Amino acid sequence: MDLTILWFWIIAVMFVGYFVLDGFDFGVGMSLPFLGRDDTDRRVLINTIGPVWDLNETWVIVAGASLFAAFPEWYATMFSGFYLPLVLILVALIVRGVSFEYRHQRPESSWKKWFDGMIIVGSAVPALLWGVAFANIVRGVNLDVNHNYTGTFFDLLNPYALLGGVTTLLLFFVHGVVFISLKTEGDIRLRARKLATKAGILMIVVAATFLVWTIFAYGTVASALLAAVAAGALIASFLANLRGAERLAFGLMAGAIGLVVLSLFASLFPEVMPASNDPANSLTIANASSSAYTLGVMSWTALIGMPVILLYQGWTYWVFRKRIGRAHIEVSVH
């Protein structure tokens, strides 16, 4: 297989890993006002992702670094054209991470409420803007002959992209709530399952609308097949949640999110940044990639490093696999 094609799909898989793993982190953060009736409930919710959220977040660093090395033209065009949305995502991720560490540093309820609010916003903003960004990449943006973005920030807020943002927001929210039902016990677990059912109906309608729009406007045969399987996985996850099969529901949600991401990449291929104003200005895997030598070195590095990373992350999840509940939260002066 041509190394440019291989690395296009490796980067797709890396973004699958990021959206699946950090996606439920975002969902847990967004669930605080719905499931956190008091400070103990909110501590339970935060502790479900406490040991893993920072590890999950590193996937976006790996994906971004790989994109920079394998497709520098794509990286330059995307990060310069989408500068403001990506900065907002970065600020939100920083705010969220700081809030996890600082909310317990003082006993006042107002202090905790402030940081809880930042966790919610710091989770919702990336969940929305990642969908907006990827939908714009699939849709295409205005590029000049040097592959520079010539549009404005408000051009990115078109109906298709906003629908993509709402889709990822709802996907991650339900993904996180299903994760909570998998990781907690007692009343929170039951309430999470009910919330996943209610939000799941809206999620299926919105996601189906977005996928159908994508297929008819920008899709290929491969992307349509992936989207169809993703839709089936979403419905199956919803039904599994109704039955109380939490592991199955979570696994199907993870699979559905991964298939949605792969469907978007399949809609792009072989382009990486379509030019909506002039197809001649589009970036493709051929004119955006690094040299064959660079891609070869990266391939050997990935072959050695990725199994180690996956084994370590799998071990981490195994160690912290047990459920938690209110009884596990120690009474503290904070």
TrEMBL record:
Q: What residue ranges are annotated as transmembrane?
A: 6-35, 82-102, 114-137, 157-180, 201-218, 224-242, 249-269, 297-320
Cellular component, GO annotation: cytochrome complex; plasma membrane
Output the GO biological process annotations, alphabetical, semicolon-separated.
Answer: aerobic electron transport chain
Q: Which UniProt keywords apply?
A: Cell membrane, Electron transport, Heme, Iron, Membrane, Metal-binding, Transmembrane, Transmembrane helix, Transport
Source organism, top-level taxon = Bacteria
Q: Where does this one sit in the cell? A: Cell membrane
Q: Which GO terms fall under molecular function for this chain's record? A: electron transfer activity; metal ion binding; oxidoreductase activity, acting on diphenols and related substances as donors, oxygen as acceptor
Membrane topology reported for the UniProt record: Multi-pass membrane protein
User: Which NCBIfam families has this protein been placed in?
Assistant: cydB (TIGR00203)
Q: Which family does it belong to?
A: Belongs to the cytochrome ubiquinol oxidase subunit 2 family.
Task: Return the protein name.
Answer: Cytochrome d ubiquinol oxidase subunit II
